[in-house]
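Quarterly update from the structural biology core.
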Amino acid sequence: LQALDNETKSLSSNLQQQNNTHLSKLTALENDITILATPLLVRKLSQDVLALNESAIATQSNLEHLEGNLSAITSNLKMKLSSLNADLQNQSLSHLARLQALDNETKSLSSNLQQQNNTHLSKLTALENDITILATPCASGNGAVVGWKSTQWKNLTQTDNNGLIVSMTYNKKRGDTFLKLTFQSIFRQSIDRRCAQWHFAIDGWECSYPAGVDYVSLIDIPNSDQTIRLSGALVGVCRAIETGNVGAGIHTVGMYLRDCPRWKLPDADPETGWGGTTTILVEELCPPQ
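Predicted structure, tokenized:
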């Protein structure tokens, strides 16, 4: 038993030594494995770092590319916005000009309509007056003025010996009225037994009823080379001409000049006006007493 116990202790001691030896070897192997594995890990880490760096570079590049695209998009948007603002400004100016033109057209149209309205009112008033005149017969012998018109010529100097001197138109209101005709001017002629006749005509015809409306100037100073100028007026009334009564409507009233038909005398060298004011006055009168 003692021998077995000793052998057992010896065996246990040997096993313990072997175990310790194995542990030492295992530790040494682990250290060796650690030493051998460290460069691989470093290399792996380096590779991972390089990969991450390359990824970061690619990400930076992508970011810069995105920033470039964003800048281009922003610039394009600014250009489009600027162009849109310019278009809107132009459209606004165009619309403003159009509105101004429409406003001017409206004002012009309003002015024209106002003028037309005033013209129509004037015509309506004239028509109402005409209707009143036509509706009211001339009382016998009242000689009332139905209407009148006057025309003037300034600085007139008419030296024609025969024919029309001046004329005007008159719109006769009624058919049963008389026309009172007045001609005012400056008359000139030679005085060495010369004669000139100024006379009214209506529509080219001399008045026949009640009589002609004329002015005869005969000056007889023998052997004189002088001329004479007289300021005067020729006045008369006319109801009818050779073609009949002067009816209602528009007529031409003219002043004519000719040599005196009664006397065969030399040309009187007449002149009408002499730079003064010449007037024709037409008055439409109800029949006299």
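The longest helix spans residues 2-135.
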